[in-house]
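ugh finaly. both done.
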Amino acid sequence: MDEHPANAVRSKKDSSIVVGAQLVRDGEADAFFSAGSTGACMAAATLVMGRIKGVSRPAIATVLPTTGAPCVLLDVGANADCKPENLLQFAEMGEAYASVVLGVASPRVALLNIGEEPTKGSMLAQEAHALLAERLGSFVGNVEGRGVLAGVADVIVTDGFTGNVALKLLEGTSAVLLGQVKDAMTSSTVRKLAAAVLKPALVDMKKRLDPDTYGGAPLLGVNGVCIIGHGSSGPKAVENAIRVAVQAVEGGLTARIAAAVAQN
């Protein structure tokens, strides 16, 4: 985990991560999943499997629960510094993933920003907004942090630095809230009885908020299906990650991304 990802991939040809990527590259496997080092998975997928033609930078996506259907957030860590053109490609790749894996017929794309107006945010955000508005028919504008889980978009794009901070904040908030609810519902006999009545609803809420429910995070833009799991992935997370990989393969995700990128 403390090795430089690219150096580790180049020097450890027999590591399971490198071999898995090679199997996909050589057509002996349809997809690759690992709950190992995220950096090593990214490096192996990019260096061994290669990028889809026309993709400048692969991006890590994640599926988030919302008040409606789940949405795709990307990039959540692969690219800390981005250009507007990168965000356009992230949007195209996110659209393909939302269609293939989440079954959204016409995904709505939003840009994560500090305000809804086109002139808000950093120069990157303003230039990206103009580019997305010009080149992407499915673009619905900016979304603020408070709107990420409101179901206003099916795909939300941002740079990897901002996306990673947003994801970790949401994960931390979810864990704290669930813990507080559990403490409140078990603090007395009366509340325990109430919790027993509410248990089905609470279990359903926990399932919706649990990242393991949505499988691993796909690395979009590489020439093949690569799903990256958390290091603490349990059986349910691994099962769902493999399910997502199967959906991506059967839905032709790589070809969908290639076609979308080629159009712009």
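ok and the 2nd:
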Amino acid sequence: MIVYPNAKINIGLNVLEKRADGYHQLSSVFYPIKELRDILEILPAKDFSFSSSGIAIIGNSNICTKAFDLLKSDFGIGNVSMHLHKQIPVGAGLGGGSADGAFALKAFNELFNIRLSNIELEKYALQLGADCPFFIENSPKYITGIGEEMTNIDLNLSAYKLKFILPDLHISTLEAYRDITPQWPKKNLLDLINQPIVDWKKIVKNDFEIIAFKKYPYLREMKEKLYTDGAIYASMSGSGSVLYGLFNG
């Protein structure tokens, strides 16, 4: 079985407050970008194995292996051979790792006929990471909580061209959250996102830009270049470092 975990972008990202459990309450809109994707092959095998190619995976553990371990523990699924060809930049705010984990869960569910519903899959996905549940349905969502509270939204950007700037820079999510100052915005992001896209430039913000642009000034210059080139909206995605621009088609 071959699946294609895709990227996402954040349209607005507000860090609202730090919770008692150490996580941060946030609000954001997640939008799937299916043109930018990894390739994950999963085959039944006598012994378990995982390998990867493409962009190097940071760290010693892999989220696809964690997904396998979760379902192996609860359902006794058979061993698999997994190969991940990584194409979505790592540590860039595009959710590539989260997508890999969620798509692995969906693939195991189908391959071994476990018959978990999307709601059940989302609960397993949350054990892998806060952004993972989004990729189960993989459709535009308004996200709150730590990422697990999702509301379907009617947002279609297919009429626009999307351009990425991919800096050679990995921004640690832990580092970004450590330096953020949470605050509640004056207006709810869900209300702002319903305004015309031409107005987003002035009203839809990513709180992590304040930190990232101060530490890496060239990221601000990259965003300004997107606007100079004609973007109607530009932003950093997630906690960075990728920037994107929406252009008229």
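summary for the 2nd one i guess: The radius of gyration is 18 Å.
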